[in-house]
Amino acid sequence: xxxIEKVKSAYDILVEASESAESAVKACRPTPMVVGExxxxxxxxxxxxxxxxxxxxxxxxxxxxxxxxxxxFVTELKKRKIGYVGYYGGYSVSSWExxxxxxxxxxxxxxxxxxxxxxxxxxxxxxxxxxxxxxx
Length: 136
Hints:
The chain is α+β, with helices and mostly antiparallel strands and about 140 residues long. It is about 35% helix and about 20% strand. It has 4 helices and 6 strands, in the order H-E-E-E-H-E-E-H-H-E. Strands 4-5-3-6 form a 4-stranded antiparallel β-sheet. The protein has a two-stranded antiparallel sheet with strand order 1-2. Helix 1 crosses helix 2 (about 70-80) and helix 1 (about 10-25) packs antiparallel against helix 4. It is elongated, with a radius of gyration of 18 Å. The model has no long low-confidence stretch (mean pLDDT about 90).
């Protein structure tokens, strides 16, 4: 089965994936959280101690995994020094590589949105990619 990747250049796919990732980040509305010291072992926050409002919600990160770690698109990423060969195989690219606006952001939800936006475009062009995300 021929892929559409041959029709569009790897660089153009990278640009489209980055635009999709940034759009997904802009549309993302993370669930904020309040953190503070718990009362004993309960889930209740001790209101007499300092509390902090975290607009971006829980902390975490996301990556885009491309398997196998070869092909024109992965070659383009390597040429631009984007990503690395993943620990469990494939080629791993951090979500902020596609959406630089979240480079200093710790929001798990925004990272996942960026990765999902990029993956959607990559899959459209026949590139086997998926999101790998973890809460910190």
